[in-house]
């Protein structure tokens, strides 16, 4: 009986030790998984490009005011598959609702605000960033930027 009692304690000890070991192992596995997720650090792999909406004003010789709007820089270059966060800052007092031709990307850049446009293109080509308010030649100069994907 004494032998049995000892054996039961031994079994219980190993059971308890096993449970503790499994818990510790599980904890580290869980932590490791989390670490892996956090280690992907999406931010560090995403290139950032800053752009502004610029307003140009001038006068002709006879005093007539001329003004136009543009994306600045007017052309940006991306690699195929590359992730880029495009931050567009609204300078000036106009809203610029935009879309990128050939994609479902659209948004608005407003005065004093920064609009984040995540970009990733699988196909090479030139994509036009078009402001819907200033899209036409009859308004002034069209407000169109170019995203060149190589
Ligand atoms: Cu515009």
- CATH architecture descriptor text of the largest domain: Sandwich
Q: Find the CATH topology of the largest domain.
A: Immunoglobulin-like
Main β-sheet: number of strands, strand sense, barrel status? 5 strands, mixed
- Strands of the widest sheet, in order across it, are 3-9-8-5-6
Contiguous uncertain segments of 5+ residues? 35-41
Distance between the termini: 81 Å
The helix fraction, in percent, is: 25-40%
What number is the mean pLDDT?
Answer: 85
User: Any idea what the radius of gyration is?
Assistant: 30 Å
Using the coordinates above, name the CATH class of the largest domain. Answer: Mainly Beta
Shape: rod-shaped
What is the H/E string?
HHEEEEEEEEE
Number of helices: 2
CATH superfamily of the largest domain: Cupredoxins -  blue copper proteins
Structural class: alpha+beta
The total count of strands amounts to 9
Bound small molecules, by name, code or SMILES, are: copper (II) ion
Which band does the percent of strand residues land in? 35-45%
The figure for the number of domains is: 2
């Amino acid at each position: 009986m004494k032998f049995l009692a000892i054996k039961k304690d031994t079994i219980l000890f190993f059971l308890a030790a096993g449970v503790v070991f499994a818990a510790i192992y599980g904890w580290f596995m869980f932590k490791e998984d989390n670490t892996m997720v956090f280690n992907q650090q999406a931010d560090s792999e995403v290139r950032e490009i800053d752009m502004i909406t610029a307003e140009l004003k001038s006068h002709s010789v006879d005093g007539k005011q001329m003004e136009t709007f543009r994306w600045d820089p007017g052309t940006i270059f991306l690699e195929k598959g590359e992730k880029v966060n495009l931050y567009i800052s609204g300078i000036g007092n106009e809203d610029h609702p935009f879309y990128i031709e050939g994609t479902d990307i659209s948004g608005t850049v407003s005065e004093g605000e920064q609009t984040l446009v995540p970009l990733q293109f699988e196909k090479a080509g030139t994509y036009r960033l078009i402001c819907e308010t200033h899209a036409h030649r009859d308004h002034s100069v069209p407000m169109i930027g170019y995203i060149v994907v190589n």
